[in-house]
Design brief:
37% of the residues lie in helices and 11% in strands. The protein has 446 residues and is an alpha/beta fold. Bound molecules: iron/sulfur cluster. Iron/sulfur cluster binds next to loops.
Length: 446
Amino acid sequence: MSNQLKDKTTEELIVEKHLAALTKGFQSWPTLEHGKMPALGDARWTADLIYSTWVQAQTGSVPKNGLEYKVGNSGGGFDLLDFKFADKAKASTAKPADTSISLNKRSFGKRCDIPLPFYGAGMSYGSISQQVMLSRAKVAKKWGTFTCSGEGGYPDELIPYKDHVITQVATGLFGIREEVIRYAPIVEFKYAQGAKPGLGGHLLGDKSSIAVSKIRESVPWTSLFSPFPFHSVYSIEDHKKHIDWVKTINPEALISVKVSTPNDVDMVAVGSYYAGANIIHLDGSYGGTGAAPQIAKKNIAMPIELAIPKVHKHLVKEGIREEVVLIASGGIRTAHDIAKAIALGADGCVLGTSELVALGCTRCSNCERGRGCPFGLTTTDAQLSQLIQPDRAAEKLDNLYRSIQEQLQEILRDLGLSSIKELRGRVDLLLYKRENQKEKTEGEKN
Ligand code: SF4
């Protein structure tokens, strides 16, 4: 045995072996060298979408081997929407379109522009590993955008990236201390999650490790629940008190309000605006990692493609649309989904699952079982977590961001637009594919 091998512990050797195997697999899978894995994916995240996200994370470009990278196969939602591209518009804009958006449109508070019309979703320490959090923070810093802590506190390793980390305050108040509010450029109040509204959050005891429970100020290896409601908020006035509390600690912080999509979500959005929110973040029903129960994902909240135009129109009617930023999440998978959400009326989007897929997620739904994710993503297991190397993972996310930006610029160019802001609310540029199909079939019959 070489001296180098002798110096390593058994644990280091195991991690190294698996890391090598995973890296090799990750690079060869999307080439389709071994064909498509028969059980990979589902109707929303098809095998093609998963493979093509891996290709983008690897190369920074969309796949050239025929994989479908724009839509899934769910038979609904964004998968049935397309753009009405006009040929003559193609040559109309020579320079790349502007993909930046502002996250503060109020007349007060600091300016906050980001170069891409999306940022990273809240995923807590405990639900994901510290290594994944760090990877996301690194790429957010590189692009001058944001990632979000989720409800689980702030590992010290994130502090160097604090200007790019949104602090989430949710119903369990896990890890919320005065200093993490002070760090935050944006504080996100999570009132509900679109994948499981009315159910709150649940971190299984197996994942609530010693390090996680220390930050969450709880007892190690016990399950943690975040209740569904904030027991201190039953009205807009109560919500306003929360915002005042944050502003007392950190007057500079912008406020985001994350809500799920019940029928009266338009009224909730208006109320949040009057309470002082800068960002209204709608979380629709298609999102969530493998930890969110399927029955909740499929049956409770309104799909995001219905909620966005409902809220957008209501804000326009109330005369406050230009003062508030509308952000959509909950199943936004691709650059095309982002562009469609914006055409429906959002200013921008939030990406969560897509980032995990870029880092190797296969959508196997094992996030909450045993030691957690076999790829080191949604786990707090000391050994499995090491399968993610933050610098390399940040490179993959950087590649994904670059690919998404290029695709958005291509969509805008083909629509004859010079900025992503011009796309907002342009439902006239969208095509409902089923109607189109129906018209074609009827035309053929006649
Ligand atoms: S266990 Fe890992 S690979 Fe499987 S769905 Fe969860 S994050 Fe993805």
